[in-house]
Amino acid sequence: MSQASSIAGILREPTRTTESIESSALIVGAIVFVVAAPVGLILFWGRDLPIAGPGSLGTSVAIGSAIAGILAFVAGRMVLRRRFGPQPDDPAVEEAAATRTATGPRGVEAPPLHWFDVAALALAHGVIALLGWTGLADVLEQSFLGAEVFPIPGALLFGVSLALTAYVCFLSSVRMTPMLLSIVLAAFLVVGVITAMLSSSDPLWWEKNLSALGMTDDVSALAFNLTLIIAGAIVTIVARYATAGLPVTTDRDRRGRDYVRYGLVAIGILLACVGIFPVDEFFAVHNTVATGMAVVYTIIVIGLPRFLPSMPRVFVMLGWVYVGVIVVLGVFFAVGYYNLTAVELVAGLLIFSWIILFLRNTGSVGARRVVAVTA
After folding, report:
1. Whole-number pLDDT of residue 156
2. How much is the pTM?
């Protein structure tokens, strides 16, 4: 057995190779299972568990998986920090680090993340686990009506679910790239908004507007507003993460990259403010920040060819098409053809799909630059 594949070698350098990363994730999952299964047995002993609902196996799994996912993600970043060391908060250093890790011989792509980035992403992983397992439990409850789970099988399922969550979140942490970050953002938004829709106490919320999901006092409002706040934090991470590896050869290029970065940061802050200021309590502020987000997005899209000349022409044209569609939607709302919810849903989908595609395209531009340099 080679040193790299031995347990001792993995513990010394858990991210040295692709094999050691997978083995490290398995070890993390195994540790979580060993801890979680006995805890589940203690929690469930002496009672049969419903699949979903208060006091159910599904609720326990969802809460436990959220905690395990957060801890596993933080552990993954700590492992990388031990290997590469802390990175100064400097765009030039970020760019160099992104290039180094993207082209490193050991295949670990880990551009630097700061503590607030790690906190937001760890919380996002935890919320995805919480809502995802809750939704799965609800589906299984409908599939097995009246079924209950005995304590020992329940404890094993509890341990396996938490171990699987920890395994996935650890891998996501140590392999975090712009491409993967785009998937995390998409998954988080979809899970959060759909959960808010399904749990809303007002079945006719859609007759008002999308922000009506954040107006009630039930769990849907908490899910919706929390989703927007954390998504806003993730977008601010995207701002630096996606632009750090873009090619910069002149002061004009650097200024253009900074304009896009600051614009995306503004979108993230405004999005978080949409969740912080519910429309029923802060009507003027809520509408102002929501409108401001659309305005900043439009400015970025229109100015993108000037700000970032290296961006693919097809992506630039797609952004213009998105802006045109949003304008048409606004006209449809003004004439009464669409209601506000439809406009907000489609416009929000377009804006966030553009941000996700921006992440992926900047990743390809950075990779193209690396290939050109190393060729």
Report:
1. 93
2. 0.73
